[in-house]
Design brief:
single chain, mainly alpha
Length: 258
């Protein structure tokens, strides 16, 4: 576990452990009913985070012979919001098929690689992109330009110069309506046909952040630094990632994680 996760789990479990200390002499006495009773006053993410903390605690206790059985194995919490579940391979392929034009491919690349919001993509300016040095500034956060976005950016800028060579618009993405002005493209231009198929740029962005939390470890500080997130948002993704990882762990045969 990362240091941040340990602190979060400890803070979540401490009040319950203190209450159990007045009732039980040992963790061996805790039952699934006792865990549900402790979780009953909670809801939403606090309940989910506390349940994850208790599951982690009892897995550790059983692995080290401190308890004979794990009372948290069968404890269930409300499922993760479907919008916060990782995208399937089929959904990713569908988005790739939908993003056929250069502007669409760039919007998807910015969301999929840099977790850029649709509003950030619309407001991105030419001065924010440094192709020779492969740097990009998104919402004031300077970062390395990813390979996927680099290729999509070059393709779009080539199309932009060929289509509107004298456009005064300082924004990266422009359309027929905005090429002669200076304002950003409208929301629908970035949205294109994704919404009609049940997808969105913000959904792709969320999948990117969640993927980072699942692969690099659910550490809110890491997510904050990589994606310039506020602490509350980073903690939200961390909690969801912890639950997904915990669910996957529970579905494995006992011998695989003990």
């Amino acid at each position: 576990r990362s240091q941040a996760t340990i602190y979060a789990y400890s803070a979540a479990a401490r009040p319950i452990l203190q209450e159990w200390g007045r009732t039980y002499d040992h963790l061996r006495e805790v039952t699934p009913a006792g865990i549900y009773t402790a979780l009953e006053p909670m809801s939403g993410y606090p309940r989910r985070k506390t349940a994850d903390a208790l599951r982690s605690l009892f897995r550790f206790a059983k692995r080290n012979g401190l308890v004979f059985t794990d009372p948290a194995v069968g404890v269930r919490t409300p499922p993760v919001d479907p919008a916060m579940r990782p995208m399937t391979d089929g959904e990713i392929r569908a988005i790739e098929d939908l993003a056929g034009r250069p502007a669409e491919r760039l919007a998807v690349a910015l969301a999929a690689e840099h977790a850029a919001r649709s509003g950030t993509i619309r407001r991105l300016k030419l001065d924010d992109v440094d192709l020779p040095n492969r740097r990009i500034t998104l919402a004031g956060h300077d970062q390395r330009l990813g390979d996927l976005t680099y290729r999509a950016m070059r393709a779009w800028l080539g199309h932009r110069r060929a289509t509107w060579p004298h456009s005064p618009n300082p924004h990266v993405l422009i359309s027929r309506r905005t090429a002669l002005g200076t304002g950003p493209a409208c929301h629908e231009f970035v949205r294109f046909s994704l919404g009609d198929s049940g997808f969105s740029i913000d959904q792709i962005r969320a999948d990117r952040i969640l993927h980072e939390a699942l692969t690099a470890g659910p550490d809110p500080l890491h997510l904050s630094l990589v994606f310039n997130l506020d602490h509350a948002t980073a903690l939200r993704y961390t909690t969801v990632a912890e639950q997904i990882l915990s669910d996957e762990l529970e579905q494995q045969p006992t011998g695989e994680h003990e």
